[in-house]
Amino acid sequence: MCVCPVRRLVPGGGRGEGVFSDHLGDAPVGPDWDLVLEAEWKAGASDPYRHLARLWRLVARRTSA
Fold first, then answer.
1. Whether the bond into 5 is cis, omega within 30 of 0
2. Is the N or the C terminus of the chain less surrounded, counting Cβ atoms within 10 Å?
């Protein structure tokens, strides 16, 4: 299955985003933001967190043919 046949892109995976921080909206982020980002990155790649996230990022890779 090609995501974009013109560019020869196929799905390579995906991850959720905003699992732990989406509720903050435009509120200022605290000094431990790097820890929150790390937790988001890890949780967004695994279930059930990946499916709970409001945003979902599709990762694609280019085929050689």
1. no
2. C
For 29-62, the pLDDT digits (tens) are 789 888 888 888 888 778 887 777 777 777 778 8
Q: Which two tokens stand for residue 41?
A: 């990155």
Q: pTM value?
A: 0.55
Both tokens assigned to 57? 């990022």
Widest distance between CA atoms in the chain: 47
Task: Give the range of the structural domain holding residue 47, as residue numbers without chain letter.
Answer: 5-62
Closest Cα to residue 63, out of 1, 13, 16, 15? 1
pLDDT digits (tens, 9 = 90+) for 1-36: 566 776 778 877 777 777 777 777 788 778 988 888
